[in-house]
Amino acid sequence: MTTTAVSLSAVSHRYGKVQALDNISLEIERGQTVGLIGPDGVGKSTLLSLIAGVRVIQDGNVSVLGGDMADKETRRELSHRIAYMPQGLGQNLYRTLSVYENIDFHARLFGLKAQEREERIARLVAATGLDPFIDRAAGKLSGGMKQKLSLCCALVHNPDLLILDEPTTGVDPLSRRQFWTLVNDLRQENQGMTVIVATAYVEEAQQFEQLLAMDDGKLLSNQSTQSVLEEYGTEELEEAYIKMLPEEKQTEGILNITPFTPDPDLPPAIEAHGLTKRFGDFTAVDQVSFTIPQGEIFGFLGSNGCGKSTTMKMLTGLLEATEGTAELLGKPIDAGGTDVKMRVGYMSQAFSLYEELSVRQNLDLHAKLYQLGDKGKAAVEDALHQFQLDEVADTAPSSLPLGIRQRLQLAAACLHHPEVLILDEPTSGVDPAARDMFWRHLLKLSREDKITIFVSTHFMNEAERCDRISFMHKGRVLGVGTPEELTREQNAPDLEEAFVQYLIEAEGETESGEKTSDPSQSAPAASDGLPSTASQPTSYNPTANGETAAQLAARVIQADRQQDRPSENHDTESVSGGLVSHSAQNTPSHAESSTENTFNPNQQSVPQNDDFASTEHISMPSENQATDKQPVNTRSDGLNTLTPSENAHHKRDTESLKYWLATVFTFARRETKELIRDKIRLVFAVFGPVIMLAAMAWGVSFDVQNLRFAVYDRDQTSKSRELVEYFSGSRYFIEQPPLQNEADIQTALQSSQAVMVMDIPHGFGRDVARGLSPEVAFYIDGAMPFNASNIQGYAASLVGAYSRAKIEAQGLPINLNPSAVVEPRMLYNQDFNSINAIAPGVVMLVLIMVPAMMAAVGVVREKEIGSIANFYASPASVSQYLIGKQLPYIGVGLINFAALALMLVFWFGVPLKGSLLGVLIGTVLIVTASTAMGLVISSFVRSQLAAIFAAAIITIIPTVNYSGFLYSLSAMSGASVMFGKIMPASWYRNITVGSFTKGLNTADYTTEYSAIAAFAAAMLILACMLLKKQEK
């Protein structure tokens, strides 16, 4: 019988010139728990994504659960049995959706039927303690709760392989412990489930049965965790990992820390009293107070989002405090001043130097910024030598390992010899050896150069190296003291346990003081697996009421266990549909359970994670029960599976038309909810077209009227004034103040004071009285040729009318009527108002541009935040995903059209003379075409900003120039006409103008409908071809 869950053979992967994976071969047995360790950038995420099937296999073979992951159909079938939780806090969550909606979306995505979906969701939220927060948006959950919700989403389809990529990075120790207890408890329901976990905390991997250690894309170790510890003769996995590394990456030995002795005669380096920072209604930092002596290494510990970085920015003068005071070296900190910045070195959490510059150039730039002058060159050379950067001085930071990049940042921060050094998680993602080397530099700066160091971290072993530390949680400081003092105060065995006890006390105070809105503050104890410190400060019993998360889950699902979908990776007797029973007889006591590790019974327990090792078990039905409830079949590989009837109904669900349409609806439903709750996108989608129509319909006009003209009357007679009155009395012209001299003519035209100037010469009245033909000069602004031509025609017409009037007044026997007269009669738009042509054209422009932009952003947004990994890991096809994303924006486009049509009729007075049904059909087609174009754009851009610009350029230029909106398509020739006929804008313009101006009906648009529909279908097919189901 095949027992291999994952098998990799000679797998390699490259990103350009970077070798992410180098000839990796390994096997993982079914039912094992595997820890994957290594610093950032060694290939962990790439390896997991290949196993999950969300990344294209470049070289080698990847087999998962007996299937070849290079085969598209195999990946689709196996997606039901694989759960992938990508890297990043809540990366697979949708922030605006509630807890229930997030899990429900994932359940629908995998084809779970309504009853099964509800039962599974109820069980998961009960087991995780999320049931009190079922309607809360995911974005409002704490970090630990987000990770629990992510796990629920991953487990909702009951997978056989669970892949977790650094699920606890940046989460506080209490939440980390709760998370691992939860994983262990839920694993008891499916004892054959294989779990692969990449972790940034090496000590976490010590709990798993098998260890995979990586460095520079290579596999350093692939054996049981206990064997690794025995082979390298250590009890700490981090020490073993350092010994695995190449010799040049290993540390120089034990890090000796000289005790810190403060100088009582020196003022404090940093002093904060009641420091508070609010962002609107959110309090990021709440009444923080501490004093740091000069030369001390002060550690700041807390989870992501607890306020560490905000506090540091206030202390460096980058942020202004809302309340409280802070002093640096005895002087108040001025958020807008430069004095503080010149005395402080600040190293941000993310790499903040310039990737385009070399190491030396970055340091040279910092020397100039800090005004080192003639000393700058010597300071740069000294920094290169001191931080061992000589050999990479001319190398760009982008090509350096993370540890060296961090040393470069530290060198830049220390270049101007600051008195205080503030470091925001400087070693995050760095391998243990590089961290030790980094800390050697910090100790030297503190002890030899007497620099005060304020450093934030979430590594407990780093915190123990600090002279004093401060625990921070949700913006508040929980405790300040030396690591020994804080550990002793909580009667804890180590610093992490002390931090956990501080967190529990803080949560308890919050619960007793007021009803908090934060999920992590009021989660049920049964889901925590942790005790109340008030009653047992030194005990780490899994629960306060004797019931673990596993027991709670068993109790909740006892009545419906028969109908849950069994696992497919172990014998039926272990996953029978029978009831789960739990009794005192089969539940080990804490004393018994705490000595065994449920992941590896032979492994030594890790003190700081006893809760994870002390999970109580759920008894499973007997073999006879299983046989009665669920007959088994034997697969070709020897594994027992479900009966054909049970297995087939899941298969039919994912292959039927009903499932196909349901999946499309699932994506559309989720996208609609997100759009409605995203106020910025919603306002742009609904009101953007309205604003554009108002602005463009008023701003674009071909009506030549209300033209300003000025007169330079040299004659000043009644005859000359009579000629001027012909122009000032016309509705086309508006007279401006008269000009005083000839030079004013040029000035009036250049300043746009007038678009036409009349220059009447001396003797004009005399010559008219004599019957002569005096000349009058008309100066016309020709900057706009179209307007200039019309002005010329108007002027000639008015002068002609003046001449005829004079001839008739003299009674001359001249027949002024021409022998033939052409009288134009406009079939459409008889008033010759350009608004009747421009406004429908603007509707065409808006309905092509805005839906395309929204559809493009809708897809690219998921790429940016990482939630598109849910699609990659699901059985959904590209067409289902894209059509589901497209439908809500088609609906928005129809809403836009309704608003724009009402504006045309009731605001701009453009009547709808033709068929409403005809223009509605055309609108549905054009919005479908424009959103499909947006989907195509989304396939080759990576950011929302790029999507907006690309969509705007690609839609506006062809629409304005080749649709007949500004320039008649009939006046073009060759490629211009062909391009205009290919784009749907010209066809839809025929529909809008025809319906609003010409009175055409539905039957008149057959050609237009066909052309737009063909374009929409072509764009959608192209989008499906361009968007890949796997990342490269």
From TrEMBL:
GO CC annotations, alphabetized: membrane
UniProtKB keywords: ATP-binding, Cell membrane, Membrane, Nucleotide-binding, Transmembrane, Transmembrane helix
Transmembrane segments: 680-700, 837-860, 887-910, 916-938, 945-969, 1009-1027
Biased composition range(s): Low complexity: 518-528
Gene3D superfamilies xref list: abc type-2 transporter like domain, P-loop containing nucleotide triphosphate hydrolases
Membrane-related topology note: Multi-pass membrane protein
Location in or out of the cell: Membrane
PROSITE patterns on file: ABC_TM2, ABC_TRANSPORTER_1, ABC_TRANSPORTER_2
Chain intervals with Basic and acidic residues compositional bias: 561-573
SMART domains recorded: AAA
Biased composition (Polar residues): 530-544, 582-612, 621-646
Transmembrane among keywords: yes
A Pfam family this chain is assigned to: ABC_tran
Region named Disordered: 508-544, 557-651
Domain (ABC transmembrane type-2) ranges: 792-1030
One of the record's GO molecular function terms: ATP hydrolysis activity
InterPro entries named among the record's database cross-references: AAA+_ATPase, ABC2_TM, ABC2_TM_bact-type, ABC_transporter-like_ATP-bd, ABC_transporter-like_CS, P-loop_NTPase
Ranges where the ABC transporter domain occurs: 6-241, 270-499
PANTHER family (alphabetical): ATP-BINDING CASSETTE, SUB-FAMILY H, MEMBER 1 (PTHR43038), RIBOSOME-ASSOCIATED ATPASE (PTHR43038:SF4)
Protein name: ATP-binding cassette domain-containing protein
Organism: Neisseria brasiliensis
Lineage: Bacteria, Pseudomonadati, Pseudomonadota, Betaproteobacteria, Neisseriales
